[in-house]
Amino acid sequence: MSLLIKNIKALLQLREGGELKVSGKAMAELPQLNNAWLLTDGDIILDYGAMDSFDTALEQAPAGIRQIDADGKMLLPAFCDSHTHLVYPASREIEYIDKIRGLSYEEIAKRGGGILNSAGKMHEASEEELIISAMVRLEEIMGYGTAAVEIKSGYGLNTEDELKMLRVIRKLKELSPVRIISTFLGAHAIPGEYKGRQEAYVDLIINEMIPEVAAEELADYIDVFCDRGFFTVKDTDRILNAGMKHGLRPKIHANELDFSGGIQVGVKYNALSVDHLEYTGEEEIKALSGSETMPTLLPGASFFLGLIYAPARKMIDAGLPVAMASDFNPGSSPSGNMQFILSLGSIAYRMLPEEAINAVTLNGACAMGLSEEMGSIGKGKKANLIITKDIPSYEFLPYAYGSDKVETVIIGGKVVVEKST
Ligand code: NIG
Ligand code: FE
What is the percent of the chain where pLDDT is above 70? Predict the structure, then answer.
């Protein structure tokens, strides 16, 4: 199947130079072509050009091709959400009331709420129930414009339930048109029965969970929540070392609650990304500079929990790349809406519209190891595209926060979402 999209007001994020990410000043650039057409072939982008060369499009297009008139609308790569926990057994709005009354995320966790609350329910949930609820969430984020998403385990916290979560994620890969990347996060919290015996739980992760996850090829990456009150740098070092021996590259949670040393240990193991980074100072920026690790910011968690925001501006001004992801999970960010994340990038981090768009497309794809294929528009890249509603400019995308600016979503060359206007 092929599609021909014409009269596109602007084709955004055009990259033919092989860029796999953009860093520092280059984040403020968003290459574009005005008044354009784009032609797909199967699941890829075949060609594009300005409307005055529309004849070229028609020559290449097969007879009877579906044409979409995008007059007044813009075309951009679909969002790449590189950090979520969207397989979970139940929402946690009731414990959120404690949060509204003034308890912190850590205090709720210490009382057995938080991740441990989800782990208890995870144990009771069947694979089928988990698949059904996760498919609903995948449908929802697709409607907001997401075409690729990373999903973590981490609500199992024992071998059997961690494997159950990862098998659910594997099934979702088959069922959903959204491209899914899976990450093993056995080290998300210390389960109640290991309280005071943290090292024994780390041993279980290393000696039992990682070998089984690797043997069944259930995960693309490995994660550790390296932070105050959760896993130490030493725990993280041991787990990442074991993961590396099984070919699992890290993508870790770091520095959400304190200067945890998580960023440095992530860089030491050549992590694909280090995520959260609310507590990032000169030392951390130095560690990240020149590394291959993508700093990934999750403004939804700061917004929802009332935490400080990561110093995105300082990071970009220091020449670093930055990606943004939703962190969709029931405790710290119960939304997978990447349009809102894009807005938060500008509102809370003071990122320019171009920087914020780069952070949720190309750099987000890079943080999943997918930027050769997606996150930008180019010949031969995946036809994962958003057609916007009729909008005045691309700057309108972060500016008009809370309103839905997406009209059509195309994944792998297929129209998967079409809203009536
Ligand atoms: O990324 N920080 C740790 N993990 C998640 C929260 C998970 C939960 O509360 O269920 C996060 O914010
Ligand atoms: Fe997270």
Answer: 100
Alpha carbon nearest to ligand 1 atom 12, residue: 332
Instruction: Please report which confidence band the pLDDT of residue 110 belongs to, taking 50, 70 and 90 as the band edges.
Output: confident
> Where exactly are the structural domains of the chain?
3-78+376-418, 79-366
**Predicted model pTM:** 0.98
Helix (H, G, I), strand (E, B) or coil at 28: helix
* Amino acid (1-letter code) at residue 377: I
Tokens of 316: 């970009």
CATH classification of 79-366, choosing from 3.20.20.140, 3.90.190.20, 3.10.20.30, 3.30.420.300?
A: 3.20.20.140
Q: How far is the CA of 420 from the centre of ligand 2 (A)?
A: 34
Nearest ligand to the CA of 330 is: 1
Q: Which of 179, 213, 209 is nearest to 368 (CA)?
A: 179
pLDDT tens across 300-350, in order? 999 999 999 999 999 999 999 999 999 999 999 999 999 999 999 999 999
HEC sequence for 114-144: HHHHHHHHHHHCCHHHHHHHHHHHHHHHHHH
Å from CA of 368 to ligand 2 middle: 14
Provide residues with CB under 6 Å of ligand 1. Answer: 85, 114-115, 118, 225, 253, 256, 301, 327, 329-332
Please tell me the distance between residue 398's alpha carbon and the centre of ligand 2 in angstroms. Answer: 23
Please tell me the distance between residue 178's alpha carbon and the centre of ligand 2 in angstroms.
19
Q: In what order do the strands lie in the sheet with 221-226?
A: 79-81, 146-152, 179-187, 221-226, 249-254, 273-276, 294-297, 323-324
Which ligand is the nearest neighbour of the Cα of 95?
1
Q: Dmax of the chain from CA atoms?
A: 71
Q: How far is Cα 157 from Cα 143, in angstroms, rounded to an integer? A: 31
pLDDT tens sequence across 179-231: 999 999 999 999 999 999 999 999 999 999 999 999 999 999 999 999 999 99
Ligand 1 atom with the shortest distance to the CA of 276: 1
Query: How is residue 22 written in tokens?
Result: 């953009």
Task: Please tell me the distance from the alpha carbon of residue 57 to that of residue 263, in angstroms, as a whole number.
Answer: 47
